[in-house]
Structures are given as structure tokens and as C-alpha cells.
Amino acid sequence: MKVFNTRSYVWLIYAILWGMVWAYPVLTTLVIAVRGGTTLSWNSVLHGWAGILPFFLLFLLHRLPVHFLFMRHRVRVYILSVVGGLCLFGFFRYYSGEEKSRVLHMQEPCMLPREQPLGREPVPGKNDMAYEEGLVGGRPELSGPRPPRSVGYGPVPEGLPKPLLLDLVIAVLMLGFDLAIALLFRYQKEQEKAHRLETEHLRYELEHLKAQLNPHFFMNMLNNIHGMVELDPAKAQVMIMELSKLMRYVLYEGAKPRTTLSEETGFIANYVELMRKRYPSRKVHISLELPEENRERVLLPPLLFISIIENAFKHGISYQNPSFVEIRLFMEEKMLHLHCTNSIHKHPPKEGCAGGVGLVNLRQRLQLLYGDRFTLDITEKDGKTYQVKLIIPCEYDTDTKYGC
After folding, report:
1. Across 151-167, average pLDDT
2. What angle do CA 138, 144, 150 make, to 5 degrees?
3. β-pairing, 284-289 with 323-332?
């Protein structure tokens, strides 16, 4: 996700939340007006908005300049700024509440007790009704005294700001929520950045390993053809043509992240055919078994098996002694298997050793591509047979909806 889209998403969330907060006084006043059968009181709406405005200004102050101090690891300055903002918010809420209380109390009339004639005591209830009924033209008649009322302010009107402590708690929770949202999106951004860096690093390592594989492969092929130039020049020319096909695949298909199993098996078949021309002796037995089904649908990294096959021909063929190379590639239970077995004649590799640059790079590629989802088993039997078993997950083109 890009940074611009992330910021837009955050502001969209806050716009929705604050829109609900600003709409709350309008909706409540509208509901009261509908139930009472009266018109919408905009004074009540403005009174509700006046209570929301300090929180909104504090949020903007924290969201725009202050929380960037925290993001830039200036924690002390951030804490001082938040404390200062809360202090200003508290003073504003306190003095605005006091001023509003004085205004409302000044508008409330002070009812003083009426003087009562001597010798008469007020009768509760009755004198009140007589007093109310004696009002003529807005002036009371002396038909009966009204009971005394308490001197001072009347009841506290509704709609005053909440207690200051509650306002401060709400303000702290609001700022904490804003900071949590900012940290959440920052963590997501850092995770995406780390993922991109890891992907680029893996791609660089894979390209580096491919760059090592190509010269190593061509060097071995040229050495094989060099031996045929003096013995059989005509066959050497045919081998050079076959080598050009292999080079075309390595240069074009090898640069892709994935290729089809059909292309890979075609490359393996051409390589094995070239080796058969290189070793035509009856003492050399070469067998190749390739899968026939789903070859167009199965995907795999290019040049993944050539290191194993190349190593088998390099260390398993001898002109003097009987030798063999057996290659079997098949699919089983959504896994792709390669079994490569060859005889040992000269400088047999040690147990567990990758056996050269090609197999060392292969193991590294497999770890980068599959992690722990692959199996590479290298065994030596009685110093005469060398076997490599490679098992990788069977991938396929999702557009075809066919598997292994």
C-alpha cells in the first residue's frame, strides 16, 4: 500500500467518526422535536456543537503537528506538548462552564417571599391556588398570600457541560486512540517496507545464483564439445547446434521467475540427447523418464534440475568402466519428484556434500524459493552409486484450474 493511500484511508476513518459526532446533536434534537410535535431547536444544536468544538480543536492540534513529534522519536517534546494541550483544554472548559453558569443564573429570577398580613398564617395549597387565581393583568391580588420560596438561584438548568474531570478523561482517551491509529498504520507501513526489502533481497540473490549457474553450465558444455572436435568433427557440429538450443532456453526462459514443466522437460531432453552423443559407448547406459500429463499446466522455476543432472554426467560417466545415469522425473500427490542416480568412478563426493558450485547454488535457491517445503536428499551407496532425490511442491497455473 502506498503512503498516500494510507493517509487518505486514515483521514477517511476520522471524517466518518467526526461526522457521526457532529451529527449527534442534530439527530437528538430532531428526535425530541418529532416526539414533542415542535420545530427543530437550532439553539440546542448550537449548544451541543459548542460542547464538541473544544474536543475537535484538541484533536486537530494533536493530529496535525503534535503526533509527528512522536513519530520522529521526540517523545519528551511530544509528552510536554500533549500535557500543555490538555491544560489549555481544561482551562477553556472550566472558565467557559463558569461563564455559562453565570449567564444562566442571571437570567433566572429570584423569587422573594411575599409579606403576609399580621395575624394570618398561610394555608399550604389553598393559599397558593388563591394566589394564582388572584392574578389580574399580570399583578397578584391580595386574596391570599403565596407560600414563601427559598431565596437564591433556582434549579440548575440542563445542558451544562459535563464535569471537568470527565471531559479530561474523554480527551485523554481521544488522544490515545489517535496515537494508537497512527502507530498501527506506521507498523503496517514498516511491515510492507520490510517485505519489499526482503523480496528485493531474495530477487537479487536468485539473480546472482542464476548468473553463477549460466557460466558454469556453458563451461561444462564447451568442455564436452571440445573433446569431440578432434575425434568426430561432424558430430561436434551437431552438438554445437544442440548447444545453441540450450543456450536459447537458458537466456530467455531462464530469466523468467516461472516456466512450464513442458519447457523444462524439453530442455532436459535436449541436454540428455546431447550427452548421448557425447558418450556413445555401449558401456554407458543413460535412461530418462519424464512425465506426460499436465506438463503445460505445471509451473516451476527454470533450470532447477539441470545442476543435479549435469553433476550426474560429470561424475558418473567413465570410458573405461561400465557406468550409468538414470533420471526419473514424475509427479505424485501434488509433489514433483526428481530421482537421479549415477555410478561413481572418480572423486566421489562426500556424504551430505553438495558436490560443486551447481549443487551448492541449487540448495540455496531451494531455500529461497520454498523455505522448508522441499526435500533434497543426497546419498552414496557402497562407494559405487550416488543418488539425489529432490521433492518440491507442485505448482500450477491458476487460470487453468488444474493441478498435479
Report:
1. 54
2. 80
3. parallel
